[in-house]
């Protein structure tokens, strides 16, 4: 290991860092590599505590090998205790001068909290009854040059937690629990759909025509193809192409990208579950969604009821259904007559401080008022149905009222959790709606839908009647882990540039 240059030292170092660098150099001079390999643990912390939970030791137990990061050290004259953490939990190593010999025992002074070590020895219980490993051999595997934050008692600074997630996972058990819960949630959803004969597929992340949602895309350029491409805002139009092709139940769990603001509920890169079922309607998906998400809650929390923030959430099915009109009348103070009066809607929107345009349709004005007055009041799970056609360019019109669509959004804890509808399969109607979206885009609406000629061509070959749904995985994890911000449930959220790092 070469000495770091003065410039590197200055960039890295605090006085504590310099002490650790010195220790590493001293170890290397002694023939002990500060970055070693070749040690293979045969037991994890979780397995140790499970296997020996009720064991009575008599000294005949075979030795075990364990490895992890030192989280705390208590060095005494003739004996020392190290609290070590691996990927499954904590365990204790007990090292004694008599058991290791003076020279080996003195090497403990070269260790620091944060170092990664491996130890081999026999399990036993201390006088206080704590399960430990009586170390017969140990090896330094990685020397940590930087000390752990806040004297190793935890990491509470939010900015640092998000920027340096590795530290957050290292010292905050709650961050690890959230990450594990996310994996559990995704696995449950995948298994739930697979058991119902849905086929998991992958569709393009880079698309020539971004579609499937109203959102501003990220742009890129492919030099070999000499064409502009977009990071996808949704996989919807490709999943529907698969319905045309004969795969009648499909789903995808993967990333979407939307060039929008960052907040506690939005990250420009996020994970979605989208699934499509031929010969089904949005009403069928409401039943499926109740079963899937209530079962998921029970799987993760042990109950249909759990706490989010300061309030209880109850996902016991069935869940209430409310039309957009009913929700507005209930929560915005608007009357039936005002909902049908565009001028009254426009005045209400302006008085409420909403960003509206003179040519906004009644449907768009209703949805703006819905977002302002209704959304945050829908705490318990609620299916909101019958969305205006103007804001649902891919959904089938309702047979009884063609101004609205057969669509629902599921609201839990005041935010949208799922969006679904009976799919529009009429290529002529779809073309008209795409053209209306294209006009809106030309007029300055950056989130309006692109016109996708190839998708229209696919519809002209005939798509079976179907329903589809999208569920935001990040928001679902927030809900089931009682996390206030989307950044708490994404391992590496996007952040503004850090000073000096770029």
Describe this structure in words.
The chain has helices spanning 6-12, 15-29, 45-51, 97-100, 102-106, 158-163, 165-171, 173-194, 236-245, 282-301, 324-331, 336-339, 342-351, 362-373, 427-442, 453-461, 473-481; strands spanning 64-75, 79-86, 89-96, 116-125, 131-142, 199-200, 206-207, 219-222, 227-231, 249-257, 269-278, 305-308, 311-314, 321-323, 382-388, 404-412, 415-422, 466-472. The protein is elongated and about 90 Å long. The strands form four sheets. The chain has an eight-stranded mixed β-sheet, with helices on both faces. Helix content is 34%, strand content 25%. With 502 residues, it is α+β, with helices and mostly antiparallel strands. The model is unreliable at 9-13 (pLDDT under 50).
Strand content: 15-25%
Number of domains: 2
Average pLDDT metric: 92
Helix fraction bin: 25-40%
Tally of individual helices: 17
* Uncertain residue ranges: 9-13
Question: What is the radius of gyration computed over CA atoms, rounded to a whole number of angstroms?
Answer: 29 Å
CATH architecture of the largest domain: 2-Layer Sandwich
Task: Give the spatial strand order of the biggest sheet.
Answer: 6-10-11-18-17-16-15-14
Termini separation? 28 Å
Structural class: alpha+beta
Outline: elongated
CATH superfamily of the largest domain: Bira Bifunctional Protein, Domain 2
Sheet with most strands: 8 strands, mixed
Number of strands: 18
CATH class of the largest domain: Alpha Beta
Q: Fill in the CATH topology of the largest domain.
A: BirA Bifunctional Protein, domain 2
